[in-house]
Amino acid sequence: MTTSTRGTSKVPAVLVLEDGRIFRGRAYGAVGETFGEAVFSTGMTGYQETLTDPSYDRQIVVATAPQIGNTGWNDEDDESRRIWVSGYVVRDPARVPSNWRAKRSLDDELVAQGIVGISGIDTRALTRHLRERGSMRSGIFSGEALAADAELVARVQAQPPMKGASLYEEVATKETYVVPAVGEKKFTVAAIDLGIKGMTPHRMAERGIEVHVLPATASVEDVYAVNPDGVFFSNGPGDPATADGPVALMTAVLERRTPLFGICFGNQILGRALGFGTYKLKYGHRGINQPVQDRTTGKVEVTAHNHGFAVDAPLDKVSETPFGRAEVSHVCLNDNVVEGLQLLDQPAFSVQYHPEAAAGPHDAAYLFDRFTSLMSTVMEGQRA
């Protein structure tokens, strides 16, 4: 990515897709060029959490909500240390932010962090195109980066695809850090950072959990050095088929029968550890309004998602795995994609979506309670 001066509504910009379709608009944020996989997110709120979610690494995010930036940018809602999206596509950026917590505009923050964006395009037409053709390589070009259409298409087509991309180590912490429990400490959890969002350890801390956040490259010795009551595997970007290290680590945790919880990328890692495959979705699930059914209770939840890959596990039967019986616990009601797994013979489960959901909804927050219940049950069994 290269950037120069701040974008204004007078600076022309183009969004170029790998299949040759081009959308013309105006620069938004930094001026220059950027490349990434074009994906769309259906959330009407929470753009700050979206932009700072490490799972969006190397993706150009299209906001389907027509107006973005109304609440500006504050210093409290970041999910990580920086913006991770490669680029941002909006229809109508707010001219003036209006929120009591806002410190600056979204445009200002995009410029400050060098994020190239584009505004003034028909994002509904773009979303329909991506739904029909699938998420694809793309680029945003503005200012001096503009060139002949054919040249820009060729440059986009020369970029690596998301399938086969190993990205989780790029976004993970390099050093272990601790998030203390709020109030009385009840449990210790080792959380493997594959692209963790800041709200995730916070939700655990609220439940009396002291969270030790470990790098993606942590060994099994590193994990058990903190004497954990449970182990957590986070969300993260890229193709889970490349994550052999985390799969090996999870396998070691399962062998020790330690209570285990995974979300998003962690769900895909559990799937692989159990012997299931993973595959790339046509256009993925991204946004904060995805309907999921918890098959253990029958309850339907409105949930937050950000994933372009899924687990290939049977929906209609209990599967035998190296760690006992496993079943699909949650399913997306839009397309029957696997949204959760659970082992029936030991304390391990995962979901494909985001129960921490800082921008909402909070239907799935009970999953953190389910994790604490697993740890409590195991601890009581050890005492008995």
Tell me what portion of residues adopts beta-strand conformation. 25-35%
Contiguous uncertain segments of 5+ residues: 1-8
| Overall pLDDT score | 95
- Morphology call: globular
Please tally the helical runs, counting DSSP H or I stretches of 4 or more residues.
10
Query: Which secondary-structure class do the elements indicate?
Result: alpha/beta
Helix-strand string: EEEHEEEEHEHEHHEEHEHEHEHEEEEEEH
Oligomer: single chain
Helix content percent band? 10-25%
Q: Over the alpha carbons, how many angstroms does the gyration radius reach?
A: 21 Å
Q: Tell me the number of strands.
A: 20
Distance between the ends: 58 Å
Q: How would you sum up the major sheet?
A: 11 strands, mixed
Plain-language structure description:
This protein is 23% helix and 34% strand. The chain is an alpha/beta fold and 384 residues long. α8 (244-255) crosses α9 (265-273). The N and C termini lie far apart (58 Å).
Give a brief rundown of this model:
With 384 residues, the chain is of the alpha/beta class.
Per-chain topology:
Elements: E1 2-6, E2 12-17, E3 22-41, H1 47-51, E4 59-63, E5 67-68, E6 87-89, E7 92-93, H2 106-112, E8 116-119, H3 123-133, E9 136-142, H4 149-157, H5 168-171, E10 177-179, E11 187-192, H6 199-205, E12 209-214, H7 220-225, E13 230-233, H8 244-255, E14 260-263, H9 265-273, E15 277-294, E16 300-312, E17 319-321, E18 324-332, E19 338-343, E20 348-351, H10 366-383
Parallel strand pairs: 3-4, 4-6, 5-7, 6-8, 11-12, 11-13, 13-14, 14-20
Antiparallel strand pairs: 1-3, 2-3, 2-9, 3-8, 3-9, 10-12, 15-16, 15-18, 17-18, 18-19, 19-20
